[in-house]
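Pinned message: reference record for Lipoate-protein ligase A
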Amino acid sequence: MSETWYYVDTGHATPAFNMAMDELLLNWHSEGKIPPVLRFYGWEPAGLSVGYFQKVQGKIDLEGVKRHGFELVRRQTGGRAVLHDQELTYSVIVSEEHPDMPKSVKEAYLVISKGLLHGFRNLGVQADFAIPEGKLETTGSAVCFEEPSWYELIVEGKKAAGSAQTRKKGIILQHGSIPIEVDDGKLFDLFIYPNERVKERARKAFGDKAVAINQIVPEPITFDKTKEAFKQGFETGLNISLEPFQLNEEQLQAVHQLAEQRYRNDKWNYAR
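Predicted structure (tokens):
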């Protein structure tokens, strides 16, 4: 018997709205108001999300972010900066006490990432879990897609999806980025490098480390087709059935309010 989770499809929304929505879904689940949730979304305008602990000053080129018309937002989850542009983003919100969720962050990653694995396979992409060796985590790069972490999805050795996890109020929030297209020219305009040569070298190296879906499928695919493949992937990988859930007016209002108060607030976004 598969368990029923809520399926929340919020389409394309602002970076602040997207982060507020994840936070409130976590709160509502912790209060027992909603069951576990799978959410899919896109970003309009594109956003640069920085990790909860990440420094902005001296690392992120704020002029570059503005020049491209992107918005910076700080996530609840750790890790490095991610440019969310032409991608499908997913969130999984589930209790730490859920019988299928391991206590360790790393093992919970594995369980949740099975949804991603099946999603890629639904698109005919042979993806695998990354098992990092040695000290990949200590490169000091500000860019998330530079190195795969445990159980992230790789295709032919290149990172194809990046995820981050936090645990608050007894709830696991794992969200992540599944790039459909990548414009690495834009991406590297968003970070501060000692000089152009170092920046160019980083940009070239990036192509060997990360891959987007439309670089590996025979025919380019759309956001909606990607979403459908991963929706089925999560149902299979987590053995769940998904029931569409629409927020009511009051809930939507709460998301917009939190977006304004926290995720559009410079104190929150630039504090570190």
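Pinned by admin. Summary line: The chain has one domain: 3-270.
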